[in-house]
Amino acid sequence: MNGMTLWLICAGIPLIFGLLAQASVKRTFAKYSDVRPANGMTGAEAAAAVLKSSGLDGLTINPIEGHLTDHYDPRNRTLNLSAQVGQASSVAAIGVAAHEAGHAIQGSAGYWPMKFRQTLVPAATVGQSLWFMPVMIGLILNMTGLVTIGLVFFAAVVLFQLITLPVEFDASHRALVSLENQGLLAAEEMDGARAVLRAAALTYVAGFVAALGQLIYFFLVSRD
User: Fold this and answer.
1) 8 A C-beta contact, residue 145 and residue 167
2) For residues 60 and 157, what is the distance between their CA atoms, to the nearest angstrom?
3) Residue 3 predicted with pLDDT over 80
4) Coil, strand or helix: which one is 116?
5) Is 61 helix (H, G, I), strand (E, B) or coil?
6) The domain containing residue 28 runs over which residues?
C-alpha cells in the first residue's frame, strides 16, 4: 500500500466523515431550533425537570458563554448551558439540555464509564499536548523509539475518545427516556430531539475514528 492510499484510508476518509458530522449537527440543531415545543419550556426548565425526576433538583444550572458549549461539570456538580440551549424554547434546546442533565444523572448513579473517563482526563490532556513533537522528530530522524513514545501519549487521547462514546450514548438515552416518561415532548417533538442527539453523537464517533486513524497511520509509517 503506497503512502497516499494509506493516508486516505487512515486520515482522509475520517476527516471527511468528521466534517460531514459537524455539518449535520449544525444543520439539525438549526432545524429544530425553529421548532417551539407545545409546553413552551426552555432548555433550562426541561433540564431542571429531568434532574428533579431523578432526585437531583438541588443541582445548580448555570448560564455559560459560547455556542453549544453546554456541559456538566462533575467537579462542582453544576449544569452549564449556553444561551441558545438554556434560555431558548425549542425542541433542539430541550434535547441538548436534557442530554447534559443525563450526564448529571450518570454522576449521581456512579456510572463507571463516566468515572473512568474522568480519571483519563489528565493523561489525555498531556497526551494531546505532547504527542506530535516526538512523532515528527522521530520520523524525520528515523528514530522509531521516539515515534513510539509520541504514539503512547496519543494512545491516551484515543482511549479517552473511545470511552467517551458509551458515556455520550447513555446520557442521550437517559435524557430521551426521561423526556418521554414525563410527557415533556409530544411524539413528533421526541423525533426531533432524537435527531438532534443522534447527529451530536456522530461527532463523537467521528472524533474517535479520526484519532484512531491517525494513531494507525503514524504507527505504520514509522515501521516502513
Assistant:
1) no
2) 30
3) no
4) helix
5) strand
6) 3-222
Joined together, the cell numbers standing for residue 196 give 438532534
Residue 140, CA atoms < 13 Å, CB-side half-sphere: 6
**Three cell numbers at 193?**
430531539
Q: H/E element holding 86?
A: helix 83-86
* pTM confidence score: 0.93
Distant-in-sequence, close-in-space partners of 15: CB < 8 Å, separation ≥ 6:
210
Q: In the predicted model, is pLDDT for residue 194 greater than 70?
A: yes
Let me know: does 146 contact 134? Beta carbons within 8 Å: yes
- What's the grid cell of residue 9? 484510508
What is the grid cell recorded at 224? 516502513
**The total number of structural domains that make up the chain:** 1
**One-letter amino acid for residue 211 of the chain:** A
- Count of other CB atoms within 10 angstroms of residue 159: 18
Only one residue has cell 487521547, namely 157
Residues identified as active-site: 100
